[in-house]
Specification:
With 229 residues, this protein is an alpha/beta fold. It has nine helices and ten strands. It binds ligand 9D3.
Length: 229
């Protein structure tokens, strides 16, 4: 997979992309992630990327021209059309099903914004899908783009060291995980549940399943009754 990111802050992506799974996936050639600075596509001496909103109101709006020029520069370098994704608070809520869907694409092109928002013609003109990562206010689209990249790349075949991990996750969807414990058996008086030390794998599996149901019921009832979400 190839992922292009259009952003005013390419440096923000460097650390997340240089660690762990995202680092390994790039080293192994599973994903190629390229950052493009929208400001490099300005044509005026001030390198202006935002302007006042027509109709008045607070804040500034991301201008069309630098984003379209950056987009067209990337498009002509490669014939495969990307799925174009605009990170915006107005977008479809990102979830694991959308991450799975995106992981099937050959190319993604993510656009992260700053200021009050994008000129509406960026979304329509570039035929972009709009994605939000949740109902809270971020300072820009960069962290949202990184969330999407992380969730998508770890679903690519062979991105995870241990091939079993994604298989196991896939049948776990819809329920929270069971509680995990490792050594020591007693940490400051907090003990590991006896059942996990019993060696009875049938009983352990039963206990874990019941823990998953109980935790889901108390902590995420919306997963069991999505109509109440
Ligand atoms: C004060 C006006 N804000 C309305 C809530 C407008 C606003 C514009 C731009 C608020 C935040 C942002 C920057 N956020 C994003 O670019 C963003 C985002 C987010 O804030 N939350 C969840 N997902 C996303 S994806 C992009």
């Amino acid at each position: 997979m190839r992922i292009d990111v259009l952003t005013l802050f390419p440096e923000m992506f460097e650390s997340p992309l240089s660690h762990s799974i995202l680092k390994r996936a790039q080293e192994r050639g599973i994903v190629d992630i390229a950052l493009t600075n929208i400001r490099d596509f300005t044509t005026d001496s001030y390198k202006k990327v935002d302007d006042k909103p027509y109709g008045g109101g607070p804040g500034m709006v991301m201008m069309c021209a630098p984003v379209f020029d950056a987009f067209e520069h990337l498009r002509q370098a490669c014939p495969t059309p990307p799925r174009v994704i605009l990170l915006t608070p107005q977008g479809r809520k990102f979830d694991q099903a959308l991450a799975r869907d995106l992981s099937g694409a050959e190319r993604l092109l993510l656009i992260a914004g700053r200021y009050e928002g994008f000129d509406e013609r960026i979304g329509t003109g570039l035929e972009a899908e709009q994605i939000s990562i949740g109902d809270y206010v971020l300072s820009g689209g960069e962290l949202a783009a990184m969330v999407v990249i992380d969730a998508v790349v770890r679903l690519l075949p062979e991105a995870l060291g241990d091939a079993a991990s994604t298989t196991e996750e896939s049948f776990s969807e819809g329920l929270l995980e069971y509680p995990h414990y490792t050594r020591p058996e007693d940490f400051r008086g907090m003990k590991v549940p006896e059942i996990l030390l019993s060696g009875d794998h049938g009983k352990i599996a039963q206990w874990r399943h019941q823990q998953r149901l109980e935790r889901t019921r108390t902590q995420r009832p919306d997963l069991l009754s999505p109509e109440n979400a």
